Amino acid sequence: MTEYIENPALWALVVLLLIVIAVVVRQRKAAMALRQEIAGLREYYSDLEHHYVQSVAAAQEQAEEATKTVLKSAMRTLQGLAAEQQLILSRLQTKHGESVILQDLLEIDHTNSQFGRRAQSIAVLCDGWLGRHRDNASVYDVVRSAQGRVRHFRRVEILSQVDFGISSRAVEPVALALAELLDNATSYSSPDTVVEINIRAVPKGVAIVVDDAGVGMNDEERARAERLLSSDRVKSVAGLGNPPQFGLAVIGVLSERFGFEVSVDSSSPYGGVRAVVLLPHELLTSMPEKKAPAPPMTRSSVPPPQPNGPEPVPASPTTTDGLPLRRRKRPMAIVPGSAPTPIASARSGAETAAIMGAFQRGTRSGRAARGDDGDQTISTRGSSSEGHEFS
Amino acid sequence: MNGPDDFELDATELVRPYVITKGRRLPDDDQLSLITLVTAAPEQVQRPLRLSPEEQRLLDLCSAGYLSVAEIAGHTRLPLGVVRIMLAGLTEAGYLITRPPVARARLADKELLEEVLSGLRAKFG
C-alpha cells in the first residue's frame, strides 16, 4: 500500500479526480440553473401568450359589440321606415283601390316587405329589435305573412291548414324564420317548381313542413346547416361569410330565443330539402276570432218617410259588419229628381178633359218634331223594371 | 329583443293584399266592372278546402244572391281592386257566376219634355 501512497502518479490521479468531480458538480449546477431559467422563461412566455390571446379576444369582442350596436341602431331606423312605408302603402291601396295604380302599389308593397325582412334579419343577428304583434294570429295567416316576405312568393303553395293560432309574441319570430326558410327553398330550386307548405297538427304541437324541388344539400352543406341551427353556431356577424348567408343563422337565433324547433336534415319527396318548423304547445293558442273591422260603423239614421217617396225600409237585416243587406228594390225613376207635385185638388170633369187634351196635343207636336224618339219612354220603362230582384 | 324598446306592430296587417291576391293581375274592366253582378254558382255545394279565408268569405257573401262588385268590396273592407282580382279568380275556378250589369236606362229626352211643358204653359199659363 505504502508504495502506492508515495507514488506521485497516484496523487496526481487523486488531484485529477477531485478536479473532475468539482467540474462535474459545477457543470451540473450550471445546467440546473439554466434549466430553471428556461422553465421560468417558458412560464413567462406562456403567460404572455395567454394574455395576448385574452386581449385579442377582448378586442375582437369589443369590435363585435361595436359593430352590433351600430348595425342594430341602423337596422332599427330601417325597420321603422319599412313599417311606416307599409302603413302609407295600405292607405294608398285603399284610396286607389279602383285604379290601375293598385297593381303597382301591390308590387311596391311586396318589395317593401322583402326590404323590411332583410333589416329584421340583420337586427336579429345583432340581438336587436324585432317588432311584435298585439294579437294572436292563425298559423295560416302567419305562414302567409312569411310567404309575402320572399321574392318568389307566387311559387309557394299552402296545401293544408290547421285550426290553431300562434301567440302574439311568437307571431313575428315564426314568420321571419319561416320567411328565411322559404327564401332558401325558392332560391335553391328552379324557377318553374313549386315550394309546398303543409301545416299539420302533431302530438308535440304544430309542424310546418316546407318541401322544395331543388337539388338538395350535400353532406358538407348539411353539416354546416345543422351547425348554424344548433346552439354552437357562429355567434358573430363577421362569421357569416362573403357573400353573407343570413338565413340559417337567423333561424338558429330565433328558434333558440323563442323556443321552437327547426330542422333541415331530411330530404323532400321531390328531391330537394324538407324543412320542418315545429311549434310547441307553449307558442300555440286556439284559433283567433276574426278581428272586428277597424273603423266603427256610423249607421246613418233612417231618413224620415217622404209623402210619395219609397216606403221606408223596415229594420233591414244587416251583415255582421253592420252593413245593410240588400233588399228588393223598386224600379228606378226615369225622370231625374223633381219634387213630387202636390196632387191637384178637385177639378171638374171638363177641366180634366181639357188638360188631358192639351197634354196629348203637346206630346203629339213634340213627337212630330222628333219622330225618331217616339217610343223612347216605353222602351226605357221596360228595361228599367227588370233585373232588380235581390233578396 | 323583448326589452323596453320593443316595437308594437299592430297597425300593420299581417297578411298583405298581394299575398291575398296571390300576385295575380287586375282583371279587365269589361270582364268585371264595379256594377257587374256576382253570385255563387248553384252547383257549388261542397266548398274546396284550399280556398283562403278571404275567398271563403266572398263565397259566403255571394251565396245569398246577386251582389254587385262594389257592394262586395264594401262588405270586405279590402281595396276594391283586390276584391276584383279575387272575384275574377273565383269566377275562373267556377265557384262564382257573373252577370253583366243591367244596361243603364236611357233618360227620357229632356227637349221633348220641355216642349210638352211649354205647350202646357202656353195653353194654361
Structural commentary:
The complex is a heterodimer of chains A (about 400) and B (about 120). By secondary structure, chain A is α+β, with helices and mostly antiparallel strands. Chain A has a domain at about 140-285: 2-Layer Sandwich (Heat Shock Protein 90). In chain A, about 50% of the residues lie in helices and about 10% in strands. Chain A has nine helices and eight strands. Chain A has helices at about 1-5, 10-95, 100-125, 140-145, 170-185, 220-230, 245-260, 350-370, 375-385; strands at about 135-140, 155-160, 165, 195-200, 205-210, 260-265, 275-280, 285. In chain A, the strands form two sheets. A five-stranded mixed sheet of chain A has the order 2-4-5-7-6. In chain A, helix 2 (about 10-95) runs antiparallel to helix 3, helix 3 packs across helix 7 and helix 5 runs antiparallel to helix 7 (about 245-260). The longest helix of chain A is centred in the N-terminal third of the chain and has 88 residues, at about 10-95. The radius of gyration of chain A is 44 Å and the shape is rod-shaped. The relative contact order of chain A is 0.07. Chain B is mainly α. Chain B has a domain at about 15-105: Arc Repressor Mutant, subunit A (Orthogonal Bundle), CATH 1.10.10. Helices cover about 40% and strands about 10% of the residues of chain B. Chain B is built from five helices and three strands, in the order αβαβααβα. Chain B has helices at about 15-20, 55-60, 70-75, 80-90, 110-125; strands spanning about 35-40, 65-70, 95-100. Chain B has a three-stranded antiparallel sheet. In chain B, helix 3 packs across helix 4. The interface between A and B is large, with 83 and 60 residues.
